[in-house]
Structure formats: C-alpha cells, structure tokens
Amino acid sequence: MQAVCQEAGPAAAAAAAEGACPGARLGRSGSVKVHVASRENVALMAVVALLAAVTAFALATMDFGKATFPAACIEALEDFAAMMLTPGLSGHFTLVDVVEGLFVSLALALLTTLIGAVIAFVLGLLASSNLSSRAVSNVIKALMSVARAVPTILWVLVFSVAIGLGPEAAVTGLLFHSVAYLVKAYSESFEEVDPGVLEALRAAGASWWQVVMRGVVPEKASEMLSWTFLRLEINFVNAVAVGAVAGAGGIGYQLFLAGGFYYDIHEVGLISYLCLAVAVVLEVAATRLRARLTTTR
C-alpha cells in the first residue's frame, strides 16, 4: 500500500479516498496531495515561531526613550537614504587618506589569502581521504573544524592580546580562519576527483606528488581558484571589520571613526561605496580568470 501511495494515478487516488494513505488528500483535479509532517519540519516551525514571538516581545517591551518605534524607523530610513544618496567627505579625511586606507585593507586580505591558500593546499591534500590515510584525514578535518568554529573576530582578539595590536595580529587572526575554511573547500574538492584517474597514475608508477600534480590539480584548478577568490572577498570584509579592533588601520579604522566618533553618515556612505567597488572588481577578476583557465584547459 505504501508503494501505491507514492505513485500518481487512479490507484493512488483511490487509496487516498479510502483513507489508506495517511497524510494524503485529493485536490480539485483528482490528484493526490501528500503532506508529511516530519519531526524536523515541526521542530523547525516551532523554533521559527518561538523566535518570532521573542522578537515581537522584545520590540513591544524595548525602551525607545522619547522616540516611538515608527518614528525611529522613519529616521533610520532617512539616515540610510542620506548615507547612500549623498556620500562625500566632510573634512575629517582626505580622498588620499581614504584610498590609502582602502589599499591597506586590501593588502591585508591579499596577504592573508595567499599565505592561507598555500598552507591550505598542503593540508587539503593530507585531509583528502583519497590521497591520504584515514587517520591523518580525520585528525586534520577535526582540527580545522575547531578552528573554523571560532569566529574570525575572536581569533583576531586572541592574537591582539598575545602579540599586541597591529597588522601582525590582524593577519594571524585572519589566517587561522582562512586556512580552516580553505582546507575544507579544497579537501572536499580533491575527494571528488575520478578514482579511475588516480588509480591509473598509481598503476603507471607515478609518485604521490606526480599523482597530485597530474591528476588532481589540473582537474580542480578552476574550483580552487573560485574558492580562493571567494575567501579573498571574505578576508577583505573581515579586514575592514577588524581594522579598528586589531589596530591594523586601513579603511576599517576610518569607517569606525566616521560612524562611531564623528557621526558623519556622508563619509560612511563614501567608504561603503568604495568597499562595494572593491568587491565588484574582485568578482569580475575572478570570473575572467576562471573563464580563461577553463578555455586553456
């Protein structure tokens, strides 16, 4: 009867009409509609309902001071419109200062990504079950999971305390999460290589590095490039975010001053547009490099 319930047609419709298919009902056209309320779906809906109730309660009991919630929303929208529609400099920074800070943050992201990609490439090979032993693969994946579970900002704060404020703490903190992220991406990509290709290379007497360079890298170079550029974009965002926290400077520190010290939404808008422009340039560069790599293979 379970097989009949899963099929469409007169048999399924008759079974549904007789009540033999639990959770099924007939539509207007006679088709069978099956609604299975699994425990996962029920738990998910319960969590969503609980979060919605907590949010509504928080908004209802929040102390907005002299401003009402609708008025605060309207003012926030007005500030956002002014920030996005009228960006500019108000004298706290020069354009040269802002561009220099932008390149400092971009340099932090590039340095972190390049070092992290090299380290992650080696660890990703050792973490791949088809290129390494099961024990080594499990140990590396477990360690990377722990490193990945800690947010980037916490790694930066830890190294800010350990080695002091400055670019070194920012690079080291960003590097930990970058390596953990890329190791997972690379290893999962390497494990998808056709086993027949690897076996053929091994049967021909190829060494471990020859198997990697002839059978793994050529096939997965495009995916590795995509993951690396994605991590570069993430590292740029993180470099902006930790610019003030780690004392690394850059455009993140200027954004902190403009928004939290000078309260100048126009300068915040300009800095936001510059960061957005860098993200767009990185995406275009990644797309063109990936397309060129794909056509030359």
Structural notes for this entry:
With 297 residues, this protein is mostly helical. The model has no long low-confidence stretch (mean pLDDT 81). Helix 4 packs across helix 12, helix 5 crosses helix 11 and helix 8 crosses helix 10. Helix content is 76%, strand content 2%. A hairpin with a 5-residue loop joins strand 1 and strand 2. The two termini are 53 Å apart.
Could you tell me the number of beta strands? 2
Roughly what percent helix?
A: over 70%
Question: Which stretches of 5+ consecutive residues score pLDDT under 50?
Answer: none
In percent terms, what proportion of residues is strand?
under 5%
- Strand order, biggest sheet? 1-2
Rg, nearest Å: 27 Å
Largest sheet: 2 strands, antiparallel
Secondary-structure content class? mainly alpha
Coarse shape: globular
Please count the helical segments.
12
The termini sit apart by: 53 Å
List the topology elements:
Blueprint: H1 2-6, H2 10-17, E1 24-26, E2 32-34, H3 39-61, H4 69-85, H5 95-127, H6 134-149, H7 152-163, H8 167-190, H9 195-203, H10 208-241, H11 250-261, H12 265-296
Antiparallel strand pairs: 1-2
Q: TL;DR?
A:
The protein has 297 residues and is an all-alpha fold. It is built from 12 helices and 2 strands. It has a two-stranded antiparallel sheet.
